[in-house]
């Protein structure tokens, strides 16, 4: 018994020492699995700036490691040393990639320590300006009347717009699916929509609000459970759930992760810093400017974060299986 207490005491000392010395002189790198300048990159840079305030001596930097729908950057972090100095900021793709790719070199629920959710970004369902419909109900009727003759754009496999389009079509249950038109990013997809080369797209408010406000695209609905009544532009549009797609509630959330095996003392330090960053007025203001909602619920806790991602994986897999669209 004495030996057990001695070992427990030693373990406590080691954990305490790890917490006190982290991060030391080495910077904490937040890996973004997408190109610089996009919505996830902006969230990461704002988060790095906020978390720096709450980790004594901490220097947080952002590194972009793009490609293969985010899987290259995610794999890099999964294989990194579990010392808290390499983190991953990933969006809903963390839950989607196992369904979209037949083979990935990491397991999202097993190869990471979940540190907490960061924010939710609502989505909007938009159409080309030439569409005759002006309301969601008219739009839905138009889709059914033109089954098989319409197409839907997205910004690439595993992108927010791709996932949103899959889930929406799965819930819509129209007689014939739209033709999917992939692009190499949000900008070319939006350009094609504005120009009338594609019919429909579903994408983040960070990318759509300005186009809706200027009248360059038509908006029909938001993907949140309830209408965005406080949003200056999108408050005029219904939610898909309100329009009859029961249970439809999709936001492009972001979460923070560390490699599996990162010591508990370090993950606690990072989670504590994350929680404080999410309450930082400057960080909240920046998120509001992006149309994002900072998480202030139980998903900031690692275990709840993990449960949420696991549930999202089930939901997305069902939609992907129904569509039958994968990548090798």
UniProtKB/TrEMBL annotation:
Electron transport keyword on record: no
Keywords linked to the UniProt accession: Signal
Coiled coil: none
Family, as annotated: Belongs to the UPF0065 (bug) family.
InterPro entries: BUG (IPR005064), Bug_dom1 (IPR042100)
Species of the source: Limnohabitans lacus
Signal peptide: 1-19
Record protein name field: Tripartite tricarboxylate transporter substrate-binding protein
Record Pfam families: TctC
SUPFAM superfamilies xrefs: Periplasmic binding protein-like II (SSF53850)
Gene3D superfamilies xref list: Bordetella uptake gene, domain 1, Periplasmic binding protein-like II
